[in-house]
Amino acid sequence: MKDMPTWIDEYHKGSRFGLNGKVLLKKNSKYQEILIIESDFYGKALMLDGCWMTSLRDEKYYHECLVHPALSSIDKKSHILIIGGGDGGTARECLKYSQVAKIDLVEIDEEVIKVSKTFLQEIGGGAWSDKRLAIHIDDGVKWVEKTKDNFYDVIFIDCSDPSEFSNLLFTDSFYKECKRILTKKGILATQSESPESFKNIHIHILKSLNKIFKLSETMYSFVPIYPSGIWSWTFASDEELNLSKVNYKEVMDIESNCDVWNLNFQNAAFKMMPNKIVKELNS
Questions:
Q1: How do residues 20-71 score in pLDDT, each as one tens digit?
Q2: Which residues are registered as beta bridge partners of 103?
Q3: E-strand spans in 40-181?
Q4: For the range 27-30, what are the long-range contacts, defined as Cβ-Cβ under 8 Å and sequence gap of 24 or more?
């Protein structure tokens, strides 16, 4: 039965978001159920605890949108923290920049990294062997709490939807700790859920970051296999948030090699906030 194609669905509020494919792996880690399937259209895809995380076909819609608005605006050597990101895609995009001096990738579930290296090699690519990447199997919340002030230039929160072991990554106290460990002009970049399928969580994230940081902007695009398709990424800073500036020629080269992100795409995506979200934020 393992080699026979079957429908694998993510169930969300009476809806099903599924792929048809062969199950390549199904196992339980210490934290969650891990499933890898291979479909004809989306290629290999990763599901954690019944929720789609990524697929080879559409992963760049997510990873490029999370990384490039922040890093394309930075023009000095940078120390980066990635919380989550066990598939390697966020690290891969970060490492395209020569200005990136070091990345600490903090992933709570080592099995996600092992499975991604085995089945999703195209996502992490050469990132796993890059000397600038340091992998830490640890709790992201605890890692942030024990980090000294003004330490990271950019923090990427590349986590799954709220769950028993990720809920703390969506709290005000965690965002405040992230702010503490950012440098003066540092940027926090986080996936901020769907304004459609996860509207309440989305609103909470935006209100929290608006309250904690002086500046924040939200970008909207789509990730086809996620519930409802539409997704968001929010960027916050206490000093400077010029997400449309380009400081060096390297950004142009990076843009030309992206599948989804470019500056025109980015600038338009920052203007796509649905009016119902605008109303709630202003209420």
A1: 999 999 999 999 999 999 999 999 999 999 999 999 999 999 999 999 999 9
A2: 80, 133
A3: 43-48, 51-55, 78-84, 100-107, 133-137, 152-158
A4: 27/111, 29/109, 29/110, 29/111, 29/112, 30/109, 30/111
In the sheet that 215-222 helps form, which strands lie side by side, from edge to edge?
A: 133-137, 100-107, 78-84, 152-158, 182-191, 230-237, 215-222
CB burial of residue 125 (10 Å; 0-12, 13-18, 19+): middle
Task: Please give the model's pTM, rounded to 2 decimal places.
Answer: 0.95
From 49, 104, 153, 158, active-site residue:
158
**What does the pLDDT read at residue 283?**
84
Cα-flanking dihedrals φ and ψ of residue 75, to 5°?
-120, 20
What count of residues does the chain have? 283
Name the CA dihedral angle for 84, 16, 235, 109, rounded to a multiple of 10 degrees: -10
Q: How many CA atoms lie within 13 A of 262 on its CB side?
A: 8
Q: Is 139 a catalytic residue?
A: no
CA distance 187 to 178: 10
